[in-house]
Amino acid sequence: MTPSLKLAQRLALGIPAVLLAGAYLSEYGFGLYPCEMCWWQRYAHFAAVLLALVSTVARPRALWIALAALAILVSGLIGAFHAGVEYGWWEGFTTCTSAVGGAGGDPLAAIMNAPMVRCDVAQWTLAGISLAGFNAIISIASALMIFALLGNGRGARA
């Protein structure tokens, strides 16, 4: 296996694993519970970890690593969309961003049926960037780096 392919494989396994560890640390260590779109980002990272693990035993390795990078990219794109919803740049899905109340109806029922964690409110930010924003930045950059590494080792078979 070429050094580029080996590094791409390590990144494809390590980046989503570290991001998932951070997500669970923020959830169980700091009480930042995930909304629906947060879960979508996690699902893509779970898929990336699984695909990267498959690349350790199945050939062609580059294909499995590329699929893992694609899953990382999908998580980043979902994160970018989620961050845009949090910043108010565009509307999210109503199941994720529905406001309590509305015209008519029982207010108590509206409260009881409201999502526990809203997707349009950033629970935590650093320098104005939400967790979804950080996931978007890290995931998209990582996926592009993995694709570039795979392109560097294109001539070698693994």
Can you describe what's shown?
A hairpin with a 2-residue loop joins strand 1 (125-126) and strand 2. The protein has 158 residues and is mostly helical. The protein has one domain (3-91, 108-152). The radius of gyration is 19 Å and the shape is elongated. The protein has helices spanning 3-30, 36-54, 61-86, 94-97, 107-113, 131-152; strands at 125-126, 129-130. Helix 1 (3-30) packs antiparallel against helix 6 (131-152), helix 2 runs antiparallel to helix 3 (61-86) and helix 3 (61-86) packs antiparallel against helix 6. A two-stranded antiparallel sheet has the order 1-2. It starts with a helix and ends in a 6-residue tail after the last helix.
Radius of gyration: 19 Å
Write down the domain tally: 1
Assembly type of the shown chains?
A: single chain
Q: How many helix segments?
A: 6
Which bin fits the share of residues in helices?
Answer: 55-70%
- What's the shape? elongated
Q: How confident is the prediction overall: mean pLDDT?
A: 88
The H/E string reads HHHHHEEH
Give the class from helix and strand content and strand pairing: mainly alpha
Strand content: under 5%
How many angstroms separate the termini? 5 Å
Total strands: the figure is 2
